[in-house]
Write a structure and sequence with these properties.
single chain, 126 residues, mainly alpha, 5 helices, 0% strand
């Protein structure tokens, strides 16, 4: 099956779906696609802003552990530093990657600008 035939089949499938359902249902589906995209973009912003604040708090916590280590070098304040770096680093990496994926997903932006196209993308499972 060549690309042109597949495109015609997909358009015929989309046309049959839109004529099968009433325009109200299609309009509601378009609104749902748009609202979902806005929600994903908001989560993307949170996913990039959250790690920034976690990083700021981690720096303060590491400075606290460093200060305590200088006051009493025989206690295990290095364990606090290392665990802060590992735990906060893992959280920052994971949330940043998730935020980037949500924020820079092209279909979230398409759903805001052209929700009909995004709905077609979802319906056809592309």
């Amino acid at each position: 099956m060549d690309l042109q035939t597949k495109a015609v089949d997909l358009l015929n499938k989309l046309e049959s779906l839109t004529t099968q359902y009433t325009p109200e249902v299609v309009n509601e589906a378009i609104n749902v696609v748009r609202i979902t995209a806005v929600g994903n973009l908001i989560w993307g912003v949170i996913g990039l802003a959250g790690p920034f604040f976690i990083w700021l708090y981690s720096v303060k916590l590491i400075r606290f552990f460093t200060k305590k280590h200088k006051e009493n070098p025989f206690e295990l304040w290095e364990a606090g530093q290392i665990s802060t770096i590992v735990i906060a680093g893992a959280i920052v990496v994971v949330t940043t990657l998730c935020g980037i994926e949500k924020l820079f997903n092209i279909w979230n932006w398409v759903a805001i600008v052209n929700p009909e196209l995004a709905l077609a993308h979802k319906v056809l499972g592309l």
